[in-house]
Specification:
5 helices, about 160 residues, about 20% strand, Arc Repressor Mutant, subunit A, 2 domains, alpha+beta
Length: about 160
C-alpha cells in the first residue's frame, strides 16, 4: 500500500473529480506550486496509485441504459476453467466489471446492455456456451441510485480528506 500525504490526498481527490484540470489549476487548489504538483502526480503514476486519465461515458447516451448483474457458477475452479472464463469476459465489451466472489456463486459480472435481447445474446454467445460454466443467474437494475468512480482517500496517518 502506498503512503499518501495530505497534498497527494488533495490531488487525488481533485483528479478523481476532473482529470482535465491543468497542473496550474491543480496546484492552486492543492495549495502548492505547479512544479511540486507535477512531481507529485508523476510520483503517484510511477507508484501505480493513479493510471492514465480517462473520460467517462454516460451509458444511456450511447444506447446502453440497462445494467445487469450476472452471477456465474463454475463447474470446476481449475486454472484452465478460470482462464477460459477470463478470456471470454475480456472479449465481451458489454461486460464492464468482473469479480471473483465468495458464497454460492463464483463470479459476479456487471453488464451494460441495450435491452433484454442484447443481454440474452451476450449470455448465450459468451457465457452459457463455455464448458466451464455450470449456470448463471441475472439481476436487472431498475435504476442507478449512486454510481461513482471516486475512491475515498486517506492520508498515511489515516486522516480522511475533508471536502
Amino acid at each position: 500500500m502506498s503512503q499518501i500525504d495530505p497534498t497527494e490526498a488533495r490531488l487525488l481527490s481533485l483528479l478523481q473529480k476532473d482529470a482535465s484540470l491543468s497542473v496550474a489549476d491543480l496546484a492552486k487548489a492543492a495549495h502548492t506550486s505547479a512544479a511540486t504538483c507535477w512531481r507529485r502526480i508523476q510520483s503517484l503514476e510511477e507508484r501505480g496509485v493513479i493510471g492514465p486519465p480517462v473520460r467517462l461515458v454516460d451509458p444511456e447516451k450511447i444506447g446502453r441504459g440497462m445494467d445487469a448483474f450476472c452471477q456465474v457458477r463454475m463447474k470446476t475452479q481449475d486454472a484452465a476453467a478460470r482462464g477460459e472464463l477470463q478470456r471470454a469476459v475480456e472479449a465481451e465489451p458489454a461486460i464492464i466489471e468482473v469479480y471473483s466472489i465468495s458464497g454460492e456463486w463464483d463470479y459476479m459480472l456487471h453488464l451494460v446492455v441495450r435491452d433484454i435481447a442484447d443481454l440474452e445474446s451476450v449470455l448465450m454467445r459468451r457465457l452459457l456456451e463455455l464448458d466451464c460454466v455450470a449456470g448463471t443467474s441475472t439481476i436487472f437494475a431498475l435504476r442507478r441510485i449512486k454510481h461513482t468512480t471516486q475512491m475515498p482517500i486517506e492520508t498515511a496517518e489515516g486522516h480522511r480528506l475533508r471536502e
